[in-house]
Amino acid sequence: MDFDPTITSYPDIGDRAFGTSGRILVSIFMTLELYLVATGFLILAGDNLHNLLPDVNFEFWGLGIGGKQSFVLIVALLILPTVLLKKMSILAYVSASAVLASLVIIGSIFWAATYDGIGFHKSGVVVNWGGIPTSFSLYAFCYCAHPVFPTLYTSMNKQKQFSKVTNYFDQLVHSTHQNS
């Protein structure tokens, strides 16, 4: 992308490597991947919210919507407006609020463990084998951001600093996994 400014996306790379059929194939796989990641996110959010609030049920125009399906619909309706944004820079604030929410949750866990008498000294199961599929899906979801790299690169004011950004986030992800 540094040497040819006409390449701005993965389909452009597919086109350069394999022609029009490469562009079409890469576009299909990228679109399919993004669709499946969004579907996975909705399922993950619905499952986790249902685990937190198992008794939530809604009735809408005489149609009963219960459990996981209701949370999938709620999350989809909350996320839908972000697709309609004209300036994608607003999503940075959404992302920052997610980081803040994660910090609040981690702080709440440590507060409860330290000051509310729950403590870290309780015995328990070292590995929750039933949680492996959920944790695997969380890790897979975290690594599915690569389709946005060409867009980020072309959107940056100082494109020469792109490698610094990716290296920073790579170190951040690896330090997070080592601490877990």
TrEMBL record:
It comes from the Eukaryota. Residues 5-166 form the Amino acid transporter transmembrane domain. GO terms for cellular component: organelle membrane. The chain crosses the membrane at residues 24-45, 65-84, 91-112, 132-153. Keywords: Amino-acid transport, Membrane, Transmembrane, Transmembrane helix, Transport. It is found in: Membrane. Pfam families: Aa_trans. One of its GO terms (biological process) is amino acid transport. It is a multi-pass membrane protein. This is Amino acid transporter. It comes from Solanum tuberosum.
